[in-house]
Amino acid sequence: MMDLDTVLIVCFAIAGLQAVAWIFVWLAWRHLYELRFLAAGFAAIALGLLLMLLRGGEPAAWAVVLANIVIKLGLVLLADGLARFLGQPRRAWIGIPLLAFYILSWTAAVGLDPANVAIRIHLSTLFTAVMMSVMILCLVRDRTQPALLRWIMIAFLAEYMIASIVQSAIEHLGGGGSSPVLADRHGWYLLQGSLFQIVFFACLLFMVSARLSAHLREKNEALSREIAERRRLEARLSASVETERALRDEQVDFMRIVSHEFRTPLAIIRSSADMIGLAGDPVSPATRDRITGIGEALDRLFGLIDRFMADDRDNGFQPEPLVLGRLLENVRLHFAMTGQEARLNFSVGDGDIRLLADPEMLATVIINLVDNALKYSDCAIGIEACEEKERVIIEISDRGIGIPETERPRIGRRFFRASNTATRAGSGLGLYSSQRLLAYHGGTLQLLSNEGGGTVAVVRLPLALAPATAGRSQPEGAMT
Question: Are 369 and 457 in contact (CB under 8 A)?
């Protein structure tokens, strides 16, 4: 004869410890959220067994019903957690109605015939057989777990289901008290349940271990693929860097050649201009001014070659304090030598405005913009300069052909020319080089439509360079 209280205590301890174990496992691997349902299932079984321990020798009908319902709820939660863990359909349409039927039938059985234990055993067997079948179906359809582990668990579930059916059959045949072991029907039922919990818990632990091992393998494979991809990209980047370095070397060689070839004809022009000035024949003041202008233009060309075409990084961006009025006067003299000064209208708010800039670069920007305005307009060109909020604003406005609205975003790209400029010579590099030179100064270039037709080129420059701008060797700005 088995001691029922001892069996209850053992079963309660087993279920409670398993519930606590699954809670800790879930806390360790939160991404396996299905473990919460397994922990809840074991906790419900432990609670049901605790209610059995506390109800005493002559329990009330409601206490008998409540304890068994809570245990059956735990079995439903275990089936639901197993289905979730295996990624199988939960089949709640089976578990929930079956639990409702069990509650109603058990309540009726206890209320109408409390002495008839057989009917309650048959109902429990029916409930157990259905839920075991649901779990077995999930395991049969699963392909994520090792086949041996799945079939071991299926065998134990089937054994528990068959044992429950055998017990119900023995009860039906009236042999429940023929054997000393089976004399206490409740003790045998609980002992069988505790064995089921132990085996079920062990199999689930192995399944969780298999799932974590599979996740680890997937992550390792993903990491290996990422490493391989990074190595491939690194190889491509190295090849691109080598190609870029080779192109830069070719560019430097090309600039050396061009610089050398430019110097030869310019030297001839300077020599010829000097010879004309040294000739014995008297020259008119106008001719002498022209010769002086040629010399100044040659000095500027040689300076540009030394600054921008020689292979010397120290000759790059060289800012210095300069007076805005003097800079614009040099621009006026440049166009005076070409006979275009009459079309230029200068308006300077304060000619004594001082700023920190590279004189050659800034003069090149303004000359390029004025030259564009003269090229694409037959009217007078306005050059205005003023100071505004720690910035110098220089505007070059014309009444020329303007810029088509649809092409405005592309203006300033290298070698791009608007569709309405085909009749005029040009390379599409003037605005591009201007914005690149302005970027050294932290300045911007903006092209706006002029009221009544034409274009307004707006140059904005800070009066003082930021430390990052003053120290860099390559421009980073862009035309807005």
Answer: yes
